[in-house]
Description:
Blueprint: E1 3-9, E2 15-21, E3 24-31, H1 42-46, E4 51-56, H2 73-87, E5 92-97, H3 99-110, E6 115-121, H4 130-141, H5 150-157, H6 161-168, E7 171-173, E8 176-178, H7 183-193, H8 198-203, E9 208-215, H9 220-228, E10 233-242, H10 245-248, H11 250-261
Parallel strand pairs: 3-4, 3-5, 5-6, 6-9, 9-10
Antiparallel strand pairs: 1-2, 2-4, 7-8
Amino acid sequence: MVSTMKRTVVDDGVTIAYRVFDGVEPAVVVLHGLAGSSREFIDTANGLAGRRVILIDQRGHGHSTTRPADTSRQAYVSDVVAVIGKEASGPVILVGQSMGAHTAMLVTAARPDLVRQLVMLEGNQGGGTADEHRTLGDFFRSWVVPFTDRAEASAALGEGLLERAWIDDLEERADGLHPRFDANVMQATIEAVGEPRWAEWESVEVPTLVVYADGGMFSEEQKTEFVSRGRTVRRMDLTGASHDAHLDAFDQWMSALRSAVADSPAS
Length: 267
């Protein structure tokens, strides 16, 4: 499928970039995880050929503004609302992975009129410790950039599918290759996700598919509690998959996503 890269400037002056794959509505809007970008979900969009799909680079990521002053959860929610308002003629199927799943859940809680279905891949109500958030920021700050080329980046970061996604998304500048995110912004963003948002989750009334990986980041106890505290929730589990199951368990991920999309026939 051919996509069009678009941009919109939101109220605080931040530019939000997003890819639109044309097709029938209701549209599927997809939100990537922390330090990711819409590029990771191009294969997902292609797997929904014929459906309108919108892949958003959330603020601080991808082709959107790299260093926004506001990294609050509300800012992320407002950005998604703005894009949906511009690109969809009615309620959408809202999909998110990890941090993007958290954003999607908050959008659904705040604006249920814009969402007909919610799909959360490896997401929950939020949490984590200050030490964990700092460690993640330190990891991104440890990258010695710019990289001379992608071979050097691969040697430094590794050759896993997540690392490959980061490497493929590097921005070429005059002095070399740079990540499309700022380490300090990533830490600030995940710190905001750290506040548990049970009230918002428990208020979500739209049909929700929660997808977990057996090798993901959540314990069975966490998964069970999250699902049990939702209202209209269906759970699916992926096997042999990681937290980034959209990359390493793609066929299973697409089967789960298509099951949700099938519940919202094309109009």
